[in-house]
Amino acid sequence: MFHIFTDIIDFIQSRYVSKNRKFRSFADLVAFMQSRYVPEKGGYRRDDGSIDICHTELELLQMWNFFIKCVKPKTIVETGVYYGLSTCFLADALQYNGIADSRIYCVDPWKLEHYWNGLDIEKYIKYIPKTSQEAQDEIKSLEIDILFIDSIHTYDQSSWELTTFEPYLREGGYVVMHDSLFFDGVGRTAKHLYDSPRFEVLTIDTPRKYETDNIHYPVSQGCTIARKIRNGSPILRDAEWIPLPEGHPRGPDPLLRMWAKERSDA
């Protein structure tokens, strides 16, 4: 089993967008990724010409960077790191804010060669090479200002992270969920935020869009942002959704949008 795991890591590393490249600064990293970004795909071109769509879209990363500069958090928890491109954009904003002891606690079991290695923003990053479940003891000691959920795109995983880590999110803090329109399981988790009176919630479209077998127009990956108004009753998981695999929208619209239409009687 260990050899299978290392083989998977080696394969991922071999398709690294910036394989064997060392960056001098965050600005150097951004310039390189901009040169590889393909806006119409919402992904980044690898050396072999293929497109990596596992990184967050560049436009959304820029928005997150300014978002952090606006709300000025001290403690960020990010689940799902990959090579850490989003982490670097968040860390750059923390550096800009200049708040003492501010940190991003980023959780991901994949031990890849992260973009932040050797950069000055690295001091704002605490990498936890574990699954979210394994990292729970470290996270529960924190008062979280912003919780970014972007790991496995199933209801089981995303809802576990939301219901487990949300109690450690302070009043006035934020939950940010990528892929809430394109993946039904993530959308179902985001719906918990809409259904709770304890949150203000907004879902926006994002640049990366695809058609599916059931929806024959481009569907956005989507991003849901929720502000926690107050503490209160815990969010409860939907047992019927827990066994379902990662799935794309079944149509005619992404489920999160369908639920929104039902609420508005559209």
UniProtKB/TrEMBL annotation:
Query: Which GO terms fall under molecular function for this chain's record?
Result: methyltransferase activity
Lineage, top-rank taxon, reads Bacteria
Question: What InterPro entries does the record point to?
Answer: SAM-dependent_MTases_sf (IPR029063)
What does the entry give for GO biological process? DIM/DIP cell wall layer assembly; methylation
Ordered alphabetically, the record's keywords are:
Methyltransferase, Transferase
SUPFAM superfamilies according to UniProt? S-adenosyl-L-methionine-dependent methyltransferases
Q: Name one GO cellular component term.
A: plasma membrane
* Entry keyword Methyltransferase: yes
> Where is coiled-coil annotated?
none
**Protein name listed in UniProt:** Class I SAM-dependent methyltransferase
